[in-house]
Each structure stands twice: as C-alpha cells, then as structure tokens.
Design a protein that fits this description.
Elements lengths: L1 H16 L9 H6 L8 H12 L3 E4 L4 E4 L8 H19 L5 E6 L2 E6 L7 E6 L10 E7 L2 E7 L5 E2 L2 E2 L17 E6 L2 H13 L2 H10 L1
Antiparallel strand pairs: 1-2, 3-4, 4-7, 5-6, 7-10, 8-9
C-alpha cells in the first residue's frame, strides 16, 4: 500500500540521517529479545552480522520493495508517529471548521491550531525515573503546530524485579541502558518518533549534534 511504502521510505531515510541509530530493520533482534531470559551472545552476534549485511531496496514508481533474507522489519518506532500525522490530517479534512486539534497515541502527540486554553497545547513530561502510568511530571512544554514523541523507560519494560528496555541497540544488539528517556519536538510526529528513538540510543552530546545537523 502507499502508506506502508511511505513508512518504509521514512524508516530508511531516518536510518541514513541518524547513521544507524534509528533502524527499522531490527525485527530479527527484537524477536530474539522477546523471551524473558533473552538471547545468548552468539545469537546476538549472528543477528548483528546479518543486519549489517542486509539490503532493502525501494522502487517509488511501482512501490516495489525488495528485502534480503536477513531483513526483519520492525517499524513501530516510526509507524505510530506516521499514524498520528495521518489521523490529524484526516480530522482536518473531515471537519474543516476546526479551530484546533491534538492527537495523542501512546505518547506520540501532534497539535495544530488553537488550544482550548490559548498559548499552545501544554504537554506534561512524566518523570522517566518512575516508569509507571501517571508518573509525576518533571517538566512541561507548550506546542504550537508541532509534534512531540518520547522514547524511554516505561511500565512495559519491567522484567522480574528490575527493568530492561524494550529498545534494542542496532550497534551492540543489547537493550539500551545509558539514557532512560528522550523527548523530541519536530514538525511531524513520524520525524519526532524516529528521532526520539535515535536520541535514546546516543549519548546526549551526540543527540544534540544529530538534531543540530538536520
């Protein structure tokens, strides 16, 4: 479909822009980590080797996609943002008289137009050190015709008595641990979604350098 092709194209674009920090080809590695125990070092290294040699070719005219056998696509980290963008566009088409709208799907948010209170749409940032629903806020931003996405530790990351990130590094093959949360504001939710994932993987200095470079 046109939507699936566009999500794949966006995924490959952000893979290149982030120099691999965002990678939509992580399906095989993510499946390895789906078990409670996680994979062994040999399985991780084999998956990483296959990932580095993988090929994905997109033909825009025919929307043909060619995948090498090693590619396992996992597009969650950009598809949700794409859906937020599409939902906002659909709402504006359906109700042209809207003064403003905010769409929030699982923390991926895009706002357009006037907010009910004025001064922008206020978005709270919960404390990432408390990975629970309705954690206390540590900051807030006001969005005006913009999108925001947050990647990081959450309730689903709980494993036994501790936490293990559900975001796997395409560089090491292991769950990220150095940064526990990253929030990004961009013009579109799909871009904020991909960038937040990349910034979760990178050292904060490298994240700022990436954002400044684009």
């Amino acid at each position: 479909s046109a939507d699936l092709f566009e999500v794949l194209r966006l995924g490959e674009t952000w893979r290149e822009l982030s120099r691999g920090a965002f990678d939509g080809r992580m399906g095989t590695l993510l499946r390895l980590w789906a078990s409670e125990a996680g994979p062994g070092p040999r399985a991780i290294e084999q998956a990483l080797t296959a990932l580095r040699g993988a090929r994905l070719t997109l033909e825009p005219t025919t929307r043909r996609v060619e995948l090498s056998p090693a590619v396992g696509c996992s597009l969650d980290a950009i598809a949700k943002g794409y859906i937020v963008d599409a939902a906002l566009a659909a709402a504006r088409r359906a109700v042209p008289t809207l003064d403003g709208i905010a769409v929030n799907i699982g923390g991926d948010i895009r706002c357009w137009g006037s907010s009910p209170a004025g001064g922008g749409w206020r978005i709270d940032l919960p404390d990432p050190a408390i990975p629970a629903e309705n954690a206390p806020r540590i900051d807030a931003v006001a969005l005006n015709n913009a999108a925001m996405a947050t990647s990081g530790r959450g309730p689903r990351d709980r494993r036994g008595d501790g936490y293990r990130s559900t975001t796997i590094s395409p560089f090491s093959g292991y769950p990220v641990h150095r940064v526990i949360a990253a929030s990004v504001i961009a013009s579109h939710a799909a871009d904020a979604d991909a960038l937040a994932t990349a910034c979760l993987l990178l050292h904060p200095d490298a994240s700022i350098a990436l954002v400044n470079a684009i």
